[in-house]
Amino acid sequence: MTVQSCVKIRNEWDIVAARQMGRNVAKDLGFGTVDQARITTAISELARNIYLYAGAGQICIEEMNEYGKIGLRVIATDDGPGIADIRQVMEDGFSTSGGLGAGLPGVKRLMDSFSIDSESGQGTTINAVKWVR
Ligand SMILES: Nc1ncnc2c1ncn2[C@@H]1O[C@H](COP(=O)(O)OP(=O)(O)OP(=O)(O)O)[C@@H](O)[C@H]1O
Ligand SMILES: [Mg+2]
């Protein structure tokens, strides 16, 4: 059975709650403080995007144990407007809100694996994994 905990994202306080949940799970799994910070930063960016672009959604954290390899999966989902051009949003500096456009490329760099599943008008699911080293 997979252990999964989720936080609904509807306001800015929920972003803090998602971050806190991520830190607690990461600590329990044995991630070092630097990787805990990487994970919480990634969660903040994904939660902030949900709040800004979709209005609402959720962040789920899943504990992973694959053949003794311990890890953590972050799943960010929303039913917002979706992303038409995934390659474009992964470019450093691309933003539709006057932001830095550093969020998604940053999350990809901070985590070990990263994928976006989205289409225009279909909502967005982003999946990112980090392994304990
Ligand atoms: N959940 C989402 N739903 C719809 N569009 C999204 C979502 N997340 C990101 N985007 C789109 O991808 C673009 C890039 O996101 P990214 O987080 O990299 O930068 P940003 O939010 O614009 O700026 P920053 O995060 O640096 O403040 C956003 O401007 C937005 O158009
Ligand atoms: Mg962003």
Secondary-structure blueprint:
Elements: E1 4-9, H1 12-29, H2 33-54, E2 57-66, E3 69-78, H3 86-89, H4 103-110, E4 113-118, E5 124-131
Bound molecules: adenosine-5'-triphosphate and magnesium ion.
Residues 45, 48-49, 99, 103 line the site of magnesium ion.
Throw out a few tags for this protein.
binds adenosine-5'-triphosphate; 5-stranded antiparallel sheet; binds magnesium ion; alpha+beta
Please give a quick description of this structure:
The chain contains four helices and five strands; from the N terminus they run βααββααββ. It is α+β, with helices and mostly antiparallel strands.
Overall description:
- The chain is α+β, with helices and mostly antiparallel strands.
- It is 39% helix and 30% strand.
- The chain has four helices and five strands, in the order E-H-H-E-E-H-H-E-E.
- The protein has helices spanning 12-29, 33-54, 86-89, 103-110, and strands spanning 4-9, 57-66, 69-78, 113-118, 124-131.
- Strands 1-2-3-5-4 form a five-stranded antiparallel sheet, with helices on one face.
- Strand 2 (57-66) and strand 3 form a beta hairpin.
- Helix 1 packs antiparallel against helix 2 and helix 2 runs antiparallel to helix 4.
- The longest helix has 22 residues, at 33-54.
- The protein starts with a strand and ends with a strand.
- 29% of the residues are buried.
- The mean pLDDT is 97.
- Residues 45, 48-49, 99, 103 line the site of magnesium ion.
